[in-house]
Amino acid sequence: MNTHKDAFTQVGLFACAVMLLTACSTGSSTAPGTAAPDIETSASTPMTGDTDATSLPTTSRATSSATSDATPSTTALRTANPTASATGSASAGGQPAATISLVAGAEHQITGSADPVTVECTDGGDIDIEADNVDLTITGDCEDVEIDGDNNTITGGNAKTLDIEGDGNTVATGTVPEVSVDGDNNSVEVDETSDVSVEGDENTVTYQSGDPAIETEGNNSVSAA
After folding, report:
1. Three-class secondary structure of residue 118 per DSSP
2. d(Cα 155, Cα 190) in Å, to the nearest integer?
3. Are 102 and 121 in contact (CB under 8 A)?
4. Spatial distance between the Cα atoms of 161 and 107, rounded to a whole number of angstroms
5. Cβ neighbours of residue 51 under 8 Å, at least 6 residues apart?
6. Angle, CA of 169, 173 and 176, to the nearest 5°
7. How confident is the model at residue 92 (pLDDT cuts 50, 70, 90)?
């Protein structure tokens, strides 16, 4: 009997030891500190919405900073050129017409009417007006001034010859030894001349001084002022 009782006692002690070992193993898997994976997941995965920039990874912060820095520069480039373009047009429109300088043997043709034109002749140079409604100022001494267009206004300067082929032109100039008018309804005033030839109709030529040879056809008027 004592032998059997000792055997049952040993079996019971072994069973208790196994249960204790199992309980210890189970307890160690849930011991404090093993919940760290849940805490790490919460820290490494920010919630959508309110996010602190300092909690972002280094790469995200660098990308965000680069984007915010580049955006103003791009906007500035888009707006700089139109402004610059608008300022240039205003400056160009406000500039007065340039003076065209001619020397002996040079010729300037005017083929369009726009802003008033000033031509300065230095000991020669020819002017050919092929447009209409031109407002021309001449300074200096030109070689030949030819007017082929209509309704032009020419003032100032001297020339060796003045040849008017168009109609309705008005000329008030200085010394012109030779004046030739072939169109109609032109008005010419010169300070001094020595030869006047007029064809066409309704032309008026007056001169301040000189004793010119006058040749005229049609209904025209040539006289001293």
Report:
1. strand
2. 10
3. yes
4. 14
5. none
6. 105
7. very low
Contact 88, 112 (CB under 8 A): no
Q: Distance (Å, rounded) from C-alpha 121 to C-alpha 176?
A: 14
Beta-carbon contacts of residue 165 (< 8 Å; ≥ 6 apart): 146, 147, 148, 182, 183
CA 27 distance to own-chain centroid = 81
From CA 208, how far away is CA 168, in angstroms rounded? 22
Instruction: Kindly report the pTM of this predicted structure.
Output: 0.58
Alpha helices in the chain (DSSP H): 2-29, 36-44, 58-93
pLDDT digits (tens, 9 = 90+) for 155-166: 999 999 999 999
**Any idea what the Cα angle at residue 150 is, between residues 99 and 203, rounded to 5°?**
115
